[in-house]
Amino acid sequence: MNWNPRAAMAVCVTLAVVVGVGGCGSTVDGTGLAAEVDVRTLDTGVFPTEQPKISAHLDDLGYARLEAARMADAVLSPSEVDARYTAGASALVHTDVQSVTQYLADPVVPVLLKYGFVLGFSTGSADDVWPLRTAYSGSRQREGLTVTVLRFPDAAAAKSAAAEIDAVDFAINPENVAVQLPKYADSRAHWRPSVPTLGSTTAHGIYVINVLADSRTTDINRLVEATQKYLDAEVGELDKFTPTPTGKFSTLRQDPDGLLVRVLHDGGVVPAPDGQGEVVLTLRGYLNYVQDQPGRLPVMQRAGVDRVAVTPNAFGFRARDDAAATRFVNESAELGDAVDRRAVDPPADVPGASCVQDYIAPKAAQFRCFVSYRRYAALVLGGQLWETQQRAAAQYALLANSQG
After folding, report:
1. DSSP string, 112-127
2. Strand pairing partners for 53?
3. 3-class SS at 148?
4. Is the pTM of this model over 0.85?
5. How many whole angstroms from its chain centre is CA 87?
6. I need a surface site. Which of 78, 299, 302, 363 has the fewest CB within 10 A?
7. pLDDT digits 0-9 by tens, 161-182
8. HSE (CB half, 13 Å, CA atoms) of 360?
């Protein structure tokens, strides 16, 4: 068993860590007013308060990234399948074959090219962070799953690709032993009996589902059970998903619900999707990137969050209604371990704003403020308190100015 253990570390700094701990903090209320505040009086610094411009057209790579982000909605975080997997590990869209090697072994690249790889998505979670490191170091310190779903032009290509992906990975190490998944006779799987991991490759329609099961003990039955439990759930999700035909990617819109333009962009322009952000995700798609999945998900579900706009320095959330957005801000600010953060002053005169300093976050995202206006909520990030306060005030003004 020689699946590549390297997770998308850059994604975790710029996205997974940010959204995973973004809800940590204590509530500090802003100044509530009897009537709506005049947003022109807020201290917004140099930050824009009107909707950013967004292009109506993207290049081929941009459209492919939109479709990969759509497919994230059809790929279950392992935490949804097994409640033991409480820590989100990594997630990444794939629009090129090289990015797949952050999850699968390098020799799969010729196979992907041979059978016309279209795009893919990877996710993972475990009962402790970074499940892939067990396979790499043999530390046996965590149990979880890492999943990569790859799309091909047709079912025949997917079936052939699945067989060859397993074959090239199997051939890497002479200690690999084939394993049968009883419920999935056409799946290919293998492991090394001295290493507590099981890799499997399953073709389903136009998709190939790769699962790396990671355990603390070399119990093959436990590994097989975990793999099959995930496949039982994931196959159904893929069946419900309607992929965009490859010739129709250009019909996709970067901001179909008008949420991304409600999120603060310092330059006043929404860039094209970059593979990590500048997209709008469904709740399930967003969950794949969250570290504290069992803590964060219930908060979003109670608020009826159905869309999340992701940018490098801010996130937008569409809640069920006004009250739900307010509740989302209040509950999000209570998430996390109190020893890892402290409450700080919110921006002056922004109703209901909450700000915290998170000691364990990356320095550039150490300060974070939550605001809401009507059914929309937002989280802004920054490395300095005064600047983050100004950005939060600008974000509130932007939400208010976007109504109508």
Report:
1. HHHTT--EEEEEEEES
2. 269
3. strand
4. yes
5. 12
6. 363
7. 999 999 999 999 999 999 999 9
8. 14
